[in-house]
Amino acid sequence: MDDKALLYLLHTDSEAGLRAALDIYGAAVETICKNFLSNLSGQDLEEAVADTFIKLWQNSQSFRPENGSSLKSYLYAIARNTCIDILRKKQKALPVPLEEITMAAPVNIENDYIRKNMEDTLHQVLKDMKEPDRSIFLLRYFYCEPIKSIAEKMNCSAKKVENILFRRRAGLEAALKERGIKND
Fold first, then answer.
1. Which of 55, 66, 111, 160 is 20 to 30 A off residue 16, Cα-Cα?
2. CA angle 95, 121, 155 (to 5 degrees)
3. What is the pLDDT at residue 106?
4. Residue 158 has what pLDDT?
5. Cα distance from N-terminal residue to C-terminal residue, the chain
6. CB-based contacts of 2: which residues, under 8 Å, 6+ apart?
């Protein structure tokens, strides 16, 4: 089922739409939540997954696939932000450094332009990455996998994973600066 069909289903038959979204994305959302909430109870995990899909349903009207973003990445961002909110409520330490977390700014044209420009740059940088760097970057920053777990999956040392992530972040920062987006 493509994004437009799923959105249509969410709008016309919310129960069937949520069931379909859970079938398609449930396992990945649960993995993201597990990685963020590994120190919390199973109940907190279930709450995060449920809240993620409720927020998808509540905000599905505002999602615009024609803007070039996918429903999958939109949903994963909701999951990530939901987990961060839960962690803040529980006053636990975040599993990733705060500087690596991007928070949505209040809506205005300039912020929307900057966000879109950043998304385009990120997509291009990811497209230009060679394997295994792309997989390592995605596992860490999109699926929130711990470095040790990535090293095991990629059959390399944790230090190598850290070095690749460092180089790729630097490359992304350079690409953003090239497009006039400064990290001050």
1. 66
2. 50
3. 45
4. 93
5. 41
6. none
Q: What pLDDT is stored for residue 182 in this prediction?
A: 60
Q: Which of 37, 50, 34, 130 is nearest to 89 (CA)?
A: 37
Give the model's pLDDT for residue 164: 93
Structure tokens at 142: 């999109």
Cβ–Cβ under 8 Å, residues 136 and 152: no
State the Cα–Cα distance between residues 80 and 49, nearest whole angstrom. 10
Other C-beta atoms closer than 10 Å to the C-beta of 165 total 19
CA distances from 138 to 37, 161, 163 (A): 19, 12, 15
Distance (Å, whole) CA 50 – CA 58: 12
Q: Summarize the confidence of residues 48-73 as an average pLDDT.
A: 81
Task: Tell me if 122 sits within 8 A of 168, measured CB to CB.
Answer: no
Q: How far is CA 150 from CA 17, 57, 113, 122, in A?
A: 33, 32, 33, 21
**Calpha distance 25→53 (Å, rounded):** 10
